[in-house]
Each structure stands twice: as C-alpha cells, then as structure tokens.
C-alpha cells in the first residue's frame, strides 16, 4: 500500500508541478507527513531530492515550446543554490511544529496572493 501511495503522490505532484510550474512540494510534503508518516524534516528533504528529475523533464518540454528563458533560469538557479544551502543548513535546527507552521503560512499567503491577482 505504501508503494501505491508513494507512486500516486509522486504522479500527482508531477502533474501539478508540470502544469503550474511548482516543484510539487505543495503536494508531496503534506502527503509524505500525513499519508506516509514521514517526519517533517524527512519530508522536506525528500521532496527536494524528488524535484530534480521532474524539473529536468518539465524544463525540457517547456524549452521545446519556446517557453524557457535560459539566462533567467541560470540567474534564479545561482541565487536558489545559495539560498538552498542556507535553508537546508538551518532546517535541522528548527522544530517540526515550527516548520509546519512556516510551510502553512507561506502556502496560504501564496494562495491568497495568487487568488486576488
């Protein structure tokens, strides 16, 4: 059953990620915590590792449609790598409850902002 849940969760995250341009963490992290029983720390870390193959596939498809600005992507990637190092270094020091709250507030804020614009 865990294998089916994991594959279904990955599939859903891939569809949503490819469709609206997110890495899929908005689907995967809650699914891993509440559906698969992973710790918040483990779910956060695992979702980041999972994003890589899906991002490569989606980027290739977007590139084939002429919808990818390589220069802009490289600049965001440079900043993202520096930020990722800092964020992943801080994550183990933050209690799971605080991580969940940060995640929830950020997801809600983004949802509200996207919904009103």
Q: Could you characterize the architecture of this molecule?
A:
The protein is an all-alpha fold. It has one domain (2-116). It contains five helices and no strands. The longest helix has 25 residues, at 40-64. The N and C termini lie far apart (40 Å). The mean pLDDT is 91.
Characterize this entry briefly:
With 117 residues, the chain is mainly α. It has helices spanning 2-20, 25-35, 40-64, 70-90, 96-116. The chain contains five helices and no strands.
Give the SSE layout.
Blueprint lengths: L1 H19 L4 H11 L4 H25 L5 H21 L5 H21 L1
Helix pairs in contact: 1-2, 1-3, 2-3
Structural class: mainly alpha
- How far the N terminus sits from the C terminus, by CA atoms, comes to 40 Å
Mean pLDDT: 91
Q: How many H/I helical runs?
A: 5
Number of domains: 1
What is the 3D shape? globular
Largest sheet: none
* Low-pLDDT segments: none
Q: β content, as a range?
A: under 5%
- What is the C-alpha radius of gyration, as a whole number of Å? 15 Å
Order of helices and strands: HHHHH
Considering DSSP H and I runs of 4 or more, what fraction of the residues is helical?
A: over 70%
Number of strands: 0
Question: What labels would you give this structure?
Answer:
mainly alpha, 5 helices, 117 residues
């Amino acid at each position: 059953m865990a294998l089916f849940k994991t594959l279904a969760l990955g599939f859903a995250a891939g569809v949503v990620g490819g469709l609206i341009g997110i890495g899929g963490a908005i689907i995967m992290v809650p699914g891993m915590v509440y559906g698969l029983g992973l710790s918040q720390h483990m779910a956060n870390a695992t979702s980041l590792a999972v994003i890589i193959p899906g991002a490569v596939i989606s980027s290739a498809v977007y590139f084939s449609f002429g919808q990818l600005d390589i220069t802009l992507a490289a600049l965001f990637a440079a900043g993202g790598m520096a930020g990722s190092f800092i964020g992943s270094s801080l994550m183990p020091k933050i209690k799971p409850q605080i991580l969940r709250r940060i995640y929830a507030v950020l997801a809600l804020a983004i949802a509200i902002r996207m919904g009103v614009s």
